[in-house]
Amino acid sequence: MLERHTREYVETRVRAGVLEQGTVDVLCDSGVGARLKREGLQHQGIELRFDRSGHRIDFRELVGKSITVYAQQEVVKDLIAARLAYQAPIYFEAEAVRIENCENEPEIHYQHNGQSHEIACDFIAGCDGFHGICRPAVPPNKLQIHEKYYPFAWLGILARTPPASHELIYTYHERGFALLSMRSPEISRLYLQCAPEEDISLWPDERIWEELRTRMATQEGFVLKDGPILQKGVTPMRSFVATPMQFGKLFLLGDAAHIVPPTGAKGLNLAVADVRVLTRGLVEFYKRGDREPLRQFTDRCLRRVWRCQRFSWWMTSMLHRFPNEDSFSHNIHHAELDYVASSRAASTTLAENYVGLPFDTPGLF
Ligand SMILES: Cc1cc2nc3c(=O)[nH]c(=O)nc-3n(C[C@H](O)[C@H](O)[C@H](O)COP(=O)(O)OP(=O)(O)OC[C@H]3O[C@@H](n4cnc5c(N)ncnc54)[C@H](O)[C@@H]3O)c2cc1C
User: Which residue from 88, 152, 241, 255 could staple onto 129, CB 3.0 to 4.6 Å apart?
Assistant: First the structure.
């Protein structure tokens, strides 16, 4: 297992935080769920906010499930601790620079402590994110790319202030989308829709808090207390799928194979679902010599990937203000929010997808 950053860097990198029930189950079944069960915040629903009013989508009542808020860096800490505890190596500050011979006897070439090394592999799990080297190791003529860019981005902050709501609030406002989320009872995570090329230096802390308050204001006088901003950054929004997710003995998992806009909170969950499929395939191969589940890796992953892409695209389209939206599109947009908030059938559709599609149902591994 190679990681180009330090252990400290990956254990403090702030990213996702919403875990589906299926992801929680996978982590618990894998023996890394103790702290997650203790410290994770269980949420039974979310709020959709528009026209200065909130509409709760009650997951528990609609689909009998919940989500857990537990920061991605905490999952990473738990996984690293578990692996090191059973003496399996992780090389930190080890950068993979080249992958060769994927179809026969794959090799990873990497740099560690200023020296070049190589690993001879049975298989390679390409879990190196969107900018890694695994996807580019597949010949371009063997890979199909499906992608979509959105005309906006998210300006995200991490702030030391107790969340103003105990559940996530997704807000649609004329000035753009806003999201209130959290990482713990003391730390809030908040986002604002901004331009894709937004210059973060134009956003001093005061301006961020003021814009959040404007977009999230309600008739009842919603109060958003500010606090020290610990981190801020701009995240582009894109949908991306590379198929097939395997080439010879190299498998692409998580962001190496697909990216979703973060509105549906699916990225980390999809990565875990891919890992689950690959792990099961490897177990079948090493225990019984059966290669078939590994051959089917792409097909087993892709149906979930596209379902999550559809949901993430839909949430993104519904909740963001598009530049140059004409009055017809604007009214349709508004009607969609109104329908989701007021129809049990439409709310159930949102809830079912948000809490995560179940594993091991026909076609969904
Ligand atoms: C701001 C933000 C908010 C998000 N919110 C959510 C959310 O709420 N819910 C959700 O489910 N998802 C969310 N996501 C998405 C989620 O964080 C990603 O989908 C997830 O991290 C993907 O995991 P991964 O393991 O595939 O890739 P990564 O987490 O990117 O891990 C890849 C690792 O490979 C390492 N690496 C890369 N290249 C090399 C190399 N050459 N050699 C060695 N190591 C290498 C990298 O350093 C990195 O540690 C969010 C993302 C962002 C940016």
Answer: 255
Which helix or strand (DSSP H or E) is residue 338 part of?
helix 327-342
> Which residue from 27, 255, 260 has its CB within 8 A of the most atoms of ligand 1, so it is best to mutate?
255
Ligand 1 atom index nearest CA of 259: 19
In this structure, the dihedral spanned by the alpha carbons of residues 36, 37, 38 and 39, taken in order and rounded to 10 degrees, is 40
pLDDT tens by residue, 122-164: 999 999 999 999 999 999 999 999 999 999 999 999 999 999 9
CA of 5 to the centre of ligand 1 (A): 12
Q: Are 224 and 182 in contact (CB under 8 A)?
A: no
| Nearest CA owner, ligand 1 atom 38 | 132
Q: Answer whether 20 contacts ligand 1 (Cβ < 6 A).
A: no
How far is it, in rounded angstroms, from Cα 27 to Cα 18?
14
For residue 266, the SS3 value is: coil
**Contact 10 CB / ligand 1 (< 6 Å):** yes
pLDDT tens-digit map of 3-38? 999 999 999 998 889 999 999 999 999 999 999 999
Contacts of 326 (CB under 8 A, 6+ apart): none
Mutate to test the pocket of ligand 1, among 97, 268, 277, 315 (most ligand atoms within 8 A of CB): 268
Cα–Cα distance measured from residue 190 to residue 15, given in angstroms and rounded to the nearest whole number: 12
- List residues with catalytic annotation: 43, 170, 262, 266, 354
Which DSSP symbol is given to 114? Answer: T
- Per the CB < 8 A criterion, the answer to whether 255 and 270 are in contact is no
- How far is 320 from 77, CA to CA, in rounded Å? 33
CB-CB neighbours of 286 under 10 Å: 10
Phi/psi at 283 (5° precision): -65, -45
